[in-house]
């Protein structure tokens, strides 16, 4: 079960889930069903949840790369440019 932290300390709560209906190819369903039958994933829903999370992280990583490319630092290990960029961003969400 995945969990999310909230507040202070180590209190954990289950991630809320939303039921959706999707249409995917018969080939994809067969592949997922093979993984479920072999025990590699718990269920179709678990597979799709993991795949969506993996894709989300991939997209966010690409966005981070775009930011770093826009900064144009010559030294990828030096985060000074990223810190300067971050300081220049509006902070409307902080009230």
Structure in words:
The protein has 95 residues and is mostly helical. It has a domain at 21-86. 53% of the residues lie in helices and 6% in strands. It has helices spanning 26-38, 44-71, 80-88; strands spanning 3-5, 12-14. The chain has a two-stranded antiparallel ribbon with strand order 1-2. Mean pLDDT is 80; it is low at 1-8.
What would the keywords be for this entry?
about 100 residues, mainly alpha, two-stranded antiparallel ribbon, 3 helices, disordered N terminus
Task: Give the SSE map.
Blueprint: E1 3-5, E2 12-14, H1 26-38, H2 44-71, H3 80-88
Antiparallel strand pairs: 1-2
Main β-sheet description: 2 strands, antiparallel
Mean pLDDT: 80
User: What's the total helix number?
Assistant: 3
Broad structural category? mainly alpha
Low-confidence stretches: 1-8
How would you spell out the order of helices and strands?
A: EEHHH
- Strand tally is 2
Distance between the amino and carboxyl termini: 35 Å
Bin the helical content.
40-55%
Biggest sheet: strand arrangement: 1-2
Shape, please? elongated
Overall radius of gyration: 20 Å
Determine the strand fraction and express it as a percent band: 5-15%
In short:
With 95 residues, this protein is mainly α.
């Amino acid at each position: 079960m995945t969990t999310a932290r909230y507040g202070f300390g180590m209190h954990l709560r289950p991630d809320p889930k939303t039921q959706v209906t999707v249409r995917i190819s018969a080939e994809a369903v067969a592949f997922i069903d093979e993984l479920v039958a072999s025990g590699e994933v718990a269920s179709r829903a678990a597979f799709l949840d993991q795949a969506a999370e993996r894709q989300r992280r991939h997209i966010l990583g690409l966005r981070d790369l775009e930011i770093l490319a826009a900064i144009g630092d010559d030294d990828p290990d030096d985060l000074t440019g990223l810190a300067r960029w971050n300081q220049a961003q509006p902070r409307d969400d902080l009230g």
